[in-house]
């Protein structure tokens, strides 16, 4: 859900996540969700703060009508219902999704590095051309 790929879930990304999970929230509700676990008061959720949602849910520290409690319930898997194999499949799917995202990120990074290298080559060629041109114009 971190569409900005900055390592945080901001208000709009949280909004999209809740909508995709089938539990849309109001703008104010989303702000309150973030505020409830935002330890550094930056208005977005770090990975640690995201995990804090589930820690607080397990400890019973979330309000019953909290959007965070809804998020925690929608994201959990009950092994007694799904069984160990169901839980295994759930977590394997999560790992595969994360690794495919990492591969995609690596491809993007490689493309960006290639573009930077090509730009450096162009700059070097232009500088060499200017040097030759100045030798002929003197």
UniProtKB/TrEMBL annotation:
InterPro entries: EF-hand-dom_pair (IPR011992), EF_hand_dom (IPR002048), EFHD1/2 (IPR040365). GO terms for cellular component: mitochondrial inner membrane. Residues 101-128 form a coiled coil. Residues 1-24, 25-60 form the EF-hand domain. It comes from the Eukaryota. Keywords: Calcium, Coiled coil, Metal-binding, Repeat. GO terms for molecular function: calcium ion binding; calcium ion sensor activity. PANTHER family: EF-HAND DOMAIN-CONTAINING PROTEIN D, EF-HAND DOMAIN-CONTAINING PROTEIN D1. This is EFHD1 protein. It comes from Geococcyx californianus (Greater roadrunner). The gene is Efhd1.
């Amino acid at each position: 859900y971190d569409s900005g790929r900055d390592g945080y879930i901001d208000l709009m990304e949280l909004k999209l996540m809740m909508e995709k999970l089938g539990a849309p929230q109001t703008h104010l509700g989303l702000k309150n969700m973030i505020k409830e676990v935002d330890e550094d008061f930056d208005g977005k959720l770090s990975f640690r703060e995201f995990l804090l949602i589930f820690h607080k849910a397990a400890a019973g520290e979330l309000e019953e009508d909290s959007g965070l409690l809804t998020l925690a319930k929608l994201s959990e898997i009950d092994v007694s219902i799904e069984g160990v194999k169901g839980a295994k499949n759930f977590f394997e799917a999560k790992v595969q999704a994360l690794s495919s995202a990492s591969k995609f990120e690596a491809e993007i990074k490689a493309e960006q590095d290639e573009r930077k290298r090509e730009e450096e080559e162009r700059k070097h060629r232009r500088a060499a051309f200017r040097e030759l041109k100045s030798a002929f114009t003197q």
